[in-house]
């Protein structure tokens, strides 16, 4: 793919622009019963019969638990200045609660990880929680369904992590994608713990209420973890803290229909405003959510609001993959709706597709919408943005051999086009975008889709666990290298 001109594309990136790759504990580690780790809700979910994860579990996954040195050699080979990974809460506190025993062997594992990164001059970015909730607290009190207990336990877990790792970790992300946790875990039930009243595979749940309760638990958990950092650690540790929010960009299905324009904006409020209003604007949920959901949407008490007011979050972590069209639905919203009473489509009224097809049905490459998304989020919430995830599987990659998969032309074009969108949002729209972490360092467990979709810049052979760099890893490596050179030139 020699045709991608990386130097002109990247010219408008700031000299201190950060780069790297991202992963999550459950998707790569394996070693689920090693070193005193307790079970998490995904362990149970992956072993349900009949399967709800295409037969896949994470008992071994990429065996990163044992192979992390090799994986960090790859990061170094790719020239990555930064690496984002997440902590398995139940490795550190096997049952999960604030009065439960701490597992020193789990802490040692993450100390080794952090030290192995620093030895290679790679900056660790740590996500405290990326979906693998300790089963112990799910069983004890319902996990995120218990707003008061879960936020107290998360605060305790966060404090322990700052205490033990914060001398070396200066970049924290509290939670990954609270929207997915709430909706996939407690409305559609396609993710652990798989609760739903609309999904025939689920035996328990209330899709009309549970996602909104869980959302509040996550917002308050984030805020309390930020407050602990700011009050007890920031002065000595001098790090930054943010949260990673997912959300697609929506265009109206019929651009000449004002109701579709409203529907597109409403859809984004239901995706992002749900969390960003309380966290970044320190306000109640978006008005359109209150209107539609009424008393099913929890309220913030005066005490809650005081906690939110205090919680100054440094950056907006953006996980972006795709865009869609939104079409308004006439009439009142269904009780189970979580989208803001809109239909989501991949073609507009004229039949024009939103983007080119990737290897997953929900993911189309739409870099122009990425630029609009970046600019909209920056204007609305006013915080520096780090892209904490962006990537795709190539069309057909799920059934490719290693030799075919490493020639990942589609992914290279996707990265180049999305970096170009970042440059335009910075230089033409004035957004403050500070870094880009590609998803993912290696092919890994794609949650309920199992090991089919390959998001990695490194091919994982799930039989031998051998890793092979794909062309896209080398392309990003070249981009990083060329930026380093121009930063050095600029400083001379
Ligand atoms: C994110 N969607 O999840 C997660 O943070 C990663 O762990 C995951 O591997 C990655 O994106 C790729 O999927 C998402 O359906 C899962 O819109 C699904 C969606 C979005 C994000």
UniProtKB/TrEMBL annotation:
Listed PROSITE patterns: GLYCOSYL_HYDROL_F1_2
Keywords assigned by UniProt, alphabetized: Glycosidase, Hydrolase
Residues in coiled coil: none
Hydrolase found in the keyword field: yes
Pfam families referenced in this protein's UniProt entry, alphabetically: Glyco_hydro_1
Lineage: superkingdom: Eukaryota
Bilayer-crossing regions: none
Stated family: Belongs to the glycosyl hydrolase 1 family.
Protein name: Beta-glucosidase
UniProt source species: Sporothrix stenoceras
């Amino acid at each position: 793919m020699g045709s991608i001109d990386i130097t002109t594309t990247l010219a408008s990136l700031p000299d201190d622009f950060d780069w790297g790759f991202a992963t999550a504990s459950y998707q790569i580690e394996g070693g689920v019963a090693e070193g005193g780790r307790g079970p998490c809700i995904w362990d149970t979910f992956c072993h349900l019969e009949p399967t709800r994860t295409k037969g896949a579990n994470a008992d071994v996954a990429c065996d990163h638990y044992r192979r992390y040195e090799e994986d960090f050699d790859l990061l170094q080979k790719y020239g990555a200045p930064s690496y984002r990974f997440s902590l398995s809460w139940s490795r550190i506190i096997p049952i999960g609660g604030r009065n439960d025993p701490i597992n020193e062997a789990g802490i040692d594992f993450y100390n080794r990880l952090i030290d192995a990164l620093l030895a290679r001059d790679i900056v660790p970015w740590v996500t405290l929680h990326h979906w693998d909730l300790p089963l112990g607290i799910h069983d004890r009190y319902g996990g995120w369904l218990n707003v008061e207990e879960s936020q107290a336990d998360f605060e305790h877990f966060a404090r322990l992590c700052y205490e033990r790792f914060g001398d070396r970790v200066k970049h924290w992300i509290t939670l990954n994608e609270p929207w997915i946790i709430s909706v996939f875990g407690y409305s559609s039930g396609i993710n652990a713990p798989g609760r739903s009243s609309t999904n025939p595979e689920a035996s328990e749940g209330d899709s009309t209420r549970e996602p909104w309760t869980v959302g509040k638990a996550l917002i308050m958990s984030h805020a309390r973890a930020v407050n602990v950092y700011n009050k007890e650690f920031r002065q000595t540790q001098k790090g930054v803290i943010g949260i990673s929010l997912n959300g697609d960009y929506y265009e109206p299905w019929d651009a000449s229909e004002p109701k579709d324009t409203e529907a597109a904006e409403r859809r984004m409020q239901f995706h992002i405003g749900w969390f960003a209003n309380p966290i970044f604007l320190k306000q109640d949920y978006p008005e359109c959510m209150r209107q539609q959901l009424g008393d099913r949407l929890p309220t913030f008490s005066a005490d809650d609001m005081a906690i939110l007011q205090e919680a100054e979050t440094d950056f907006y972590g953006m996980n972006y993959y795709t865009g869609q069209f939104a079409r308004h639905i006439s009439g009142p919203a269904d009780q189970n709706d979580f989208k803001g009473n809109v239909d989501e489509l991949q073609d507009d009224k004229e039949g024009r597709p939103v983007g080119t097809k990737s290897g997953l049905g929900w993911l189309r490459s739409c870099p122009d919408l990425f630029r609009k998304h970046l600019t909209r989020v920056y204007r609305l919430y006013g915080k520096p943005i780090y892209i904490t995830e962006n990537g795709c599987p190539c069309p057909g990659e799920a059934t490719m051999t290693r030799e075919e998969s490493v020639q990942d032309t589609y992914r290279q074009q996707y990265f180049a086009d999305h970096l170009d969108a970042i440059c335009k949002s910075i230089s033409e729209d004035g957004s403050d975008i500070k870094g880009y972490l590609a998803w993912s360092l290696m092919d890994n467990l794609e949650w309920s889709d199992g090991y089919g979709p390959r998001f990695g810049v490194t091919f994982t052979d799930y039989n031998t666990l051998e890793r092979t760099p794909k062309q896209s890893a080398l392309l990003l490596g070249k981009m990083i290298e060329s930026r380093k050179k121009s930063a050095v030139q600029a400083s001379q």
